[in-house]
């Protein structure tokens, strides 16, 4: 009997000890822990922001570790100083103070308290929208300048190809004669050999840029190709896409209208599985040949493709290098290649 009385007395003491914490809704690990942030700063829930700041400055000076001597006194002051700083960080921010007041008013909503607290703790300090805008801007700038680098590399390459270089020299012959060889007048000095070479290269490059229609990944970049612009005009592009396909279905599927040149080229490109830039880079004579063969019709394209594949097999069969390669693969195989080979 005395044993049961002692157990009930222990349970009562434990309940009494944790009852204040349960009543006010203070949770360990959240905000000021078991302490009330208002009590830590010596203010009330009705105190203004300026009053909270004034109380914090007074307590910060009082508990600053540098103002205390002795290891024990300094350790206690440092602990209290951290608690005061934590309370001030919570109460000076309006949203954080609102969440803390909600915890005091709703002590039973444990999960909501943890969610509100850690949502604010792990939330990014920078607005996500700013990060997205900056990232898109950086990507667009890199995309634009890398496009110019590719285009410049293509022009330099064409300037070294004899076919295009000689054609550019023929077109710019008069200009080269005027600006390089026949420099007359008082203000015109004769150019050195190095300067003449540089001037000729500049003229050739200018002619190639004006006459050469570079397509594909090395095409001359424009602002319309930049990611930012593409995202801004995305609704317009999507509308055009839907309207174009709807109009195509109505004209050529429902009304059975004959295809024009543009529609024929589109069907040929789709049959070949080419992109717009890749198809545009084809030679004009080759495109005209496709139109002459009426490759926009599916049956004609299938027959033409079969003939092309058969011709390719014949050419490969007659190619000495391909024959040697096939003999090697037959006798040795890819798994037997060594450094000695």
TrEMBL record:
A GO cellular component annotation in the UniProt record: endoplasmic reticulum membrane
TM region(s), chain numbering: 6-27, 126-145, 227-250
Entry-linked InterPro entries: DnaJ_domain, DnaJ_domain_CS, DNAJC25-like, J_dom_sf
BP-aspect Gene Ontology terms: protein folding
Keywords attached to this entry: Chaperone, Membrane, Transmembrane, Transmembrane helix
Membrane association type: Multi-pass membrane protein
Transmembrane is among the record's keywords: yes
Record's keyword annotation contains Signal: no
Compartment(s): Membrane
Annotated ranges, domain J: 36-104
SUPFAM superfamilies: Chaperone J-domain (SSF46565)
Recorded family membership: Belongs to the DNAJC25 family.
Name by which UniProt lists this protein: J domain-containing protein
């Amino acid at each position: 009997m005395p044993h049961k009385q002692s157990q009930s007395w222990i349970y009562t003491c434990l309940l009494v000890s944790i009852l204040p914490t349960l009543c006010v809704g203070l949770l360990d690990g959240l905000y000021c822990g078991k302490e009330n942030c208002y009590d830590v700063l010596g203010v009330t829930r009705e105190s203004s922001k300026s009053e909270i700041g004034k109380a914090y400055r007074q307590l910060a000076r009082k508990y600053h570790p540098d103002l205390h001597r002795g290891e024990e006194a300094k350790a206690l002051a440092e602990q209290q100083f951290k608690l005061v700083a934590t309370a001030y960080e919570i109460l000076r921010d309006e949203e954080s103070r609102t969440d803390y007041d909600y915890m005091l008013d709703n002590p039973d909503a444990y999960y909501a308290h943890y969610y509100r607290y850690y949502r604010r703790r792990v939330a990014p300090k920078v607005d996500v929208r700013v990060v997205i805008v900056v990232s898109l801007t950086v990507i667009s700038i890199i995309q634009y300048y890398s496009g110019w680098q590719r285009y410049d590399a293509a022009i330099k390459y064409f300037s070294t190809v004899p076919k295009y270089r000689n054609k550019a020299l023929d077109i710019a012959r008069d200009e080269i004669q005027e600006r390089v060889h026949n420099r007359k007048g008082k203000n015109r000095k004769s150019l050195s050999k190095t300067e003449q070479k540089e001037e000729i290269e500049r003229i050739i490059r200018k002619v190639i840029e004006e006459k050469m229609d570079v397509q594909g990944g090395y095409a001359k970049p424009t602002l319309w190709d930049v990611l930012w612009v593409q995202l801004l005009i995305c609704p317009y592009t999507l509308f055009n896409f839907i309207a174009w396909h709807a109009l195509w279905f109505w004209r050529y599927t429902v009304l059975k209208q004959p295809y024009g040149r543009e529609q024929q080229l589109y069907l040929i490109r789709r049959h070949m599985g080419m992109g717009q830039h890749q198809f545009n880079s084809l030679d004009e004579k080759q495109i005209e040949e496709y139109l002459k063969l009426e490759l926009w019709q599916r049956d004609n394209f299938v027959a033409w493709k079969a003939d092309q594949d058969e011709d390719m097999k014949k050419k490969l069969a007659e190619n000495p290098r391909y024959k040697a390669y096939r003999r090697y693969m037959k006798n040795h195989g890819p798994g037997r290649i060594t450094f000695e080979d």
